[in-house]
Protein 1
Amino acid sequence: MRAPRLFSSIGGLLAATMVGLLVVPLLALAASASWADVQLGMAHPSFSAAIALSLRTTATSLGVTLLLGTPLAWWLSTSRGRLARVVAVVVELPIVVPPAVVGVALLQTFGRQGLLGPWLSLVGISVPFTPAAVVLAQVVVSSPFFVQAAANAFRKVDRDTMIVARTLGASKAGAFVRIAVPIAAPGLWVGASLAWARALGEFGATLLFAGNMPGRTQTMPLAIFTALESDVRLAVVFSLVLAGLGAVVLLGLRFLPGLRDRGAR
Amino acid sequence: MSWSAEIRVRRDDFALDVALQGDAGVVALVGPNGSGKTTVLRILAGAVEPDYAEIEVAAQVVASTAGGIDVPMERRRMGYVPQGYGLFPHLSVIDNVAFGLSTWPHRLEKSERHARAQRLLDELDCGALAQRRVGRLSGGEQQRVALARALVIEPKLLLLDEPLAALDATTRRTVRRFLAEHLPSFQRPCVLVTHDVRDVEALATDVVVLERGQVVQRGTLEALRAAPASDFVAEFVGAR
């Protein structure tokens, strides 16, 4: 009896340490700012510019991810060939590649001396160090989270269910929109939320590829980085706002009634 | 209302080569697992592309390799009820049944399609289920709803893939009796895939036995009993 009890005690201690590591920094963050600090921080000129840019760019990058990622996820979920397996691995690459590497890779692609840069400059387009570069960096680092979750959600759509919809008169696109998407909706919503949260927190690739220009490419994580050099309290307030947005997404995922019921079914 | 189908498919280690025909009655398609029964239904529905097909239903050619015709699934008017029923889990029973009346070019107003779906559900003794979520239905109820959904488009050919396989013994008997009572009244030709000789006794006028993608015997159950062409047929009809 004694050995299993010891084992479970050690296990419990390790698990509690893990929870502590995850929670204590957030509690410390919350405890280190007063309400007056929060009000002052949110009134700071760099806050409104950074939060507006973050919300605008993450909304755009999420739109691009949904538009391009949904058909890709459907294809990955319905294809059995070798090409699909290769593409599935390629799509997951940005999850394991450090964001700084993604930033350098984007520079090597869209930079003046990059792969596509000279061609784009011929038609007057320069991507690096613009809001478009912020969006591009966010799409690359966040879209794999959506594609992966969406492909898993689409795999739960029974092939026969789609065939029935077609025999009942639905076109391919009609069956996809009216049957596959609603059935996969909980998974699509989870994937979109994770991708959005990842885009909101994106730092390394943005810093290297888009720079850190207030009002132009300085998103919230970059504003925190800048504030840390001059005023720690400001950085804490900015961090609290980002943490709060993340918490809202998490609570939405856990407690939206329709989503929870359908996800559980 | 007659139909005929000549189908050939070759995939890696599987070859299917069958010729089938029927009239307004039920043709039972039987055979061991992997003999190609479900593939035949999917080809008739248009969901699987064959290497060669000549399929004619109610005097309309829906697929002809020689004639370069391949009517898409949504325009074939085949009533398909797959093994797991394929009900739409996010829709209520009435919306499942009315789905086939919400697609172009046969789209009806919502009130009209709900009225028709309700009438059909009433005919199939499950009108009270209309507002229920399909996830909350019993196996037998799901089977009836799936049948109603397939019938609402007034299909030219009804395709039933092991409609009783997923039901417990008692429900199976009830639903079998139910199908025996209702199928003839719809006057639709029907292909019924089954593993159970009792389904054939109750529902089918003709039997086609498929083994390894080939038709090994066809005829009435009595004819199969009198002279079974293979061990499988003998075992299926209970001749030995």
Protein 2
Amino acid sequence: MVKKFAVIMLFICLFPALAMAEYDYINISNPFLFKIPVAVPVFKAMTETPAAEKAEGAPAEKEGPESVASTISVEAADLLAETLAFTRYFDIINRAAFLERPSETGITLKALNCKNWRDIGAEFIVTGGVSLKDGILSMELRLIDVFKELMMIGKKYKGKPGDQRTMVRRFCSEIMKRFTGGPGIFESKIAFVSNGSGHKEIYICDFDGHNPRRITHDNSINLSPAWSSDGNWLAYTSYREGHPDLYIKHLTENRGVVFSRDGINISPAWKPETFSLAATLSFSGDQEIYLLTGSGKIIKQLTRSWGIDVSPSFSPDGERIAFVSNRAGSPQIYIKDIASGAIQRLTFEGGYNTTPEWAPQKNRIAYCAMETGEFNIKVIDVETKEIVSLTGGQGDNESPSWAPDGSLIAFSSTRAGGVPKIYVMSAAGTDQRRLLDLPGEQTCPGWSPAVAAGQ
Amino acid sequence: MARQRFFVTFIMMLAVCSLVFTVACTKPKVKPDSQELETVESTLPEEETTSMEMAEQQTQERVEEEAIREEREKARQMFENENIHFEFDKSTLTPEAQEILRRKATFLLNNPDKSIVIEGHCDERGTGEYNLALGDRRAKSAKDFLVDMGVEPSRLSTISYGEEQPLDPRSTPAAWAKNRRAHFEIQ
């Protein structure tokens, strides 16, 4: 019974969604000038206490369902507020300012006095109710527009205790769908490299840094994790056998291949919607980018130029690659149209521009530029060539990686004590915050597609 | 009875006589034996002298071998300890690097049984992936130079470590200069 709930999270629409068309989507490329003020009061613990017990006034047992539900009602509300805040779209209003307590007065639109919420600056409120009965955790969540005084989303989720994180993320996805038109990033993951164990190994954590776990156990050097667009495969470079080889590994099934030719086998990037990837190989004596199948066979050579060609990144339609080449004497970013073979140099500013990452939707490329000895993240518009600096004056900032909806960028920065750690910022460079707190150096973040494999 | 005793006495005397006779007869045979022994004995010291001399000679050789080995070890250590260095974001060989590589080529031509691995390294600045490619180029330019000097290409293999294995972990210009290197390891 419980297992059934664990596998399938049931959710029931409480009411049909109202007035969907009246809401404009947030402009994802320029969203962060105005954040949406949202109130997320503590959820209501809704476990029904038996009448007889209530009459006797017996205190609830310490580990009884009521106290568990009330603990979850606080934690889940905090988690929902943090999850919304993580998107950088929302401004979470401090609970100290609240004029009423829905956890006591009620969580439905009828029970709320919307004026009380408008008066503290909220445009929306998320209310929640939690109950725990017979080992089944139920959560009711509502998104209410306090200006229009209507419920935009209402959902009820059932599962087992411990599933509240999944429930909260599902509801946040609903909210993002309503505001941005896309499902958001709450089921995405971030792969990265950490040397906390004494060796550079690959780890994967949730989009918000929660639940980091180690993927490789080589005691060697592992680098450059890259996700396939179905979220099931990870490609990376490992020195497991003593030299830099390319590992292509399924994340949940025990299969994959190792691509090992003379020289370097590095910097993998999957071609969107295909089981193929580009990587730099130097078996010919020169570092060139090739297209390989996911099972490790060379399809074709993508670059032909004496010198370094490295760090490919596909355009969302898979028709072009951005890459780094030092063919003009210093590392610069180039774009190649794969069908026509036409090559265009994209960066001319500065003497060191590397690691291009094509945005998943817009025609923009994030990259790393060295200026006056410092490394910073910039974004260049592929059409207009307009450049925006996203970091500056805070250590070295490298390896940008876009969130699947293009709203955020993960990167590594040495801003805290010179040790590289992973940070996340909005696509406009605002709200730069540390992603996770792990020992050692963390580098090479690789953000997965919207849905990624692995527990 | 008396007759019987006489018979026993007679037999015993006969036996004694025959014993004495036997001893007398074998005696001449002993002499040449001992003579042979003497000659053998006289040759023994000779042999011992030879083996001692040989041992001395061997020790001498061993000392010489050790000296040679030490010298070789020194040459080997010098070969392995002497890195070549590069400018930032460059894989071209400086005149100094070429001078060192000429010595390395001589060593390799004098030691035709030796194969080596050339490691290419970078400083920590810059991008990990680009530095892996740059390290690859650094190792390969050293290899190409040695091949031009006549070293068999099959004796030279290369590996890039990019910025992953700095000699000096500090973030100073001096440390960076030390870390931008090719290192040579005899297999």
